[in-house]
């Protein structure tokens, strides 16, 4: 066992050994190190081949055309590109965008930035389980609504939104639909040939690939208004300039290929670990499970320990690597905007911890975590009696 036990897979994952072995072939002089944009020699051609193979691996996972994948530096950039790139500021009317209160900060901050530039913004609120009912979306659509951006799986609670219904509503009104699928890719099958999503963001480092690379799915047919946000050499069909990081891209491609084969088995394993963890904690403690009992992925558990300050508990649980919410927002926020949107008061929110399980979590890890949590809370409660 490796200590502290890593239960923070929703913030990032380690690179899989098979991904690592693939990546190191694309770094050194005796490997394939060329610039895929070099058209005049074999170093460039080989690098380009590797990039295209990865593009195919990624598109296979969502059943898209490989030409619909644009490489970026991660989901933050994909979200920025999807939202800013698809807003046509040349239009004279005021444009309206709809999103959700529980979105990732990289979507929310991008939208606030657009709001400063004159875009009208509506954020949908979820029910107490974190779910946004499709009716709520329907009610908020206006004549000037041009884009809807909603996430598939929430990174703090693991709840699954009904993107299929959202998509239907948008498409019947010719509104663009963007999905932040960073937490769902490789966990839930997504087939863009069946669901006509226009834009979808993912990241490599949440799926056992390297950090610093991600992708944006951009539907080709029908073509949409779309503008680059980074300008330069015209890579990625002019949509995202900059020399392609071949080793990173190859790593992301390999990570997707692995998930295509192993997703079902991995989900089953993680579900068993989740059930074991939850029943072990529930038995001895007064807890609330934040999220939806049905529409959730097994990887993420958001638990409120009633009457206990989560910051204190996290410090005392020194053999567990866990967090109170998302790593991305912990630099900015004191308490979670996601739990707040679900109606948790400040006090409950401050008593909540996110546990996220992944590929390398073992049964022993889970047993250890249960014992440490139960013992620590028991001591905390005994001390507070005096
Ligand atoms: C992690 C995460 C992001 C940001 O991804 P990066 O690749 O780290 O920029 C965006 N959205 C969700 C839902 C995430 O979990």
Automatic annotation (TrEMBL):
The keyword Metal-binding applies. PANTHER family: CYSTEINE DESULFURASE (PTHR11601:SF34), CYSTEINE DESULFURYLASE FAMILY MEMBER (PTHR11601). It holds the Pfam family Aminotran_5. Signal peptide: none annotated. Its EC number is 2.8.1.7. One of its GO terms (molecular function) is metal ion binding. Its cofactor is pyridoxal 5'-phosphate. The keyword Hydrolase does not apply. This is cysteine desulfurase. It is an enzyme of class 2 (transferase). It comes from the Bacteria. Residues 5-367 form the Aminotransferase class V domain. Keywords: 2Fe-2S, Iron, Iron-sulfur, Metal-binding, Pyridoxal phosphate, Transferase. It catalyses: (sulfur carrier)-H + L-cysteine = (sulfur carrier)-SH + L-alanine. Belongs to the class-V pyridoxal-phosphate-dependent aminotransferase family. NifS/IscS subfamily. It comes from Wigglesworthia glossinidia brevipalpis.
């Amino acid at each position: 066992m490796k200590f502290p036990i890593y239960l923070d897979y929703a913030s990032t994952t380690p690179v899989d050994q098979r991904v690592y072995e693939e990546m190191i072939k694309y770094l050194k002089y005796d490997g394939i190190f060329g610039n895929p944009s070099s058209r005049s020699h074999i170093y460039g051609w080989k690098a380009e081949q590797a990039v295209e193979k990865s593009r195919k691996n990624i598109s296979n996972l969502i059943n898209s055309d490989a030409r619909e994948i644009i490489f970026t530096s991660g989901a933050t950039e994909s979200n920025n590109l999807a939202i800013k790139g698809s807003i046509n500021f040349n239009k004279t009317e005021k444009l309206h965008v709809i999103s959700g209160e529980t979105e990732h900060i990289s979507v929310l901050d991008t939208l606030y930035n657009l709001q400063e530039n004159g875009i009208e913004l509506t954020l949908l609120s979820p029910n107490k389980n974190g779910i946004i009912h499709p009716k709520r979306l329907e009610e908020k659509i206006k004549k000037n609504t041009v884009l809807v951006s909603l996430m598939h799986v929430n990174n703090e609670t693991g709840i699954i939104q009904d993107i299929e219904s959202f998509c239907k509503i948008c498409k019947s009104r010719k509104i663009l639909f963007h999905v932040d699928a960073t937490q769902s890719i490789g966990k839930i099958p997504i087939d863009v040939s069946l669901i006509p999503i226009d834009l979808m963001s993912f990241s490599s480092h949440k799926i056992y690939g390297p950090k610093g690379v991600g992708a944006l799915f951009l539907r080709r047919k029908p073509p949409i208004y779309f503008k680059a946000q980074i300008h330069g050499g015209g890579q990625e069909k002019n949509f995202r300039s900059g020399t392609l990081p071949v080793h990173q891209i190859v790593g992301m491609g390999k990570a997707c290929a692995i998930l295509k084969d192993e997703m079902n088995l991995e989900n089953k394993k993680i579900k068993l670990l989740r059930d074991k963890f939850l029943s072990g904690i529930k038995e001895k403690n007064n807890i609330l499970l934040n999220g939806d009992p049905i529409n959730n992925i097994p990887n993420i558990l958001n638990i409120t320990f009633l009457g206990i300050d989560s910051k204190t508990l996290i410090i005392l649980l020194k053999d567990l690597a866990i967090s109170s919410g998302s790593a991305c927002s912990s630099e900015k926020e004191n308490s979670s905007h996601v739990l707040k949107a679900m109606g948790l008061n400040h006090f409950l929110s401050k008593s909540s911890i996110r546990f996220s399980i992944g590929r390398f979590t073992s049964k022993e890890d889970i047993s250890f975590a249960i014992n440490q949590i139960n013992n620590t809370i028991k001591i905390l409660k005994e001390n507070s009696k005096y």
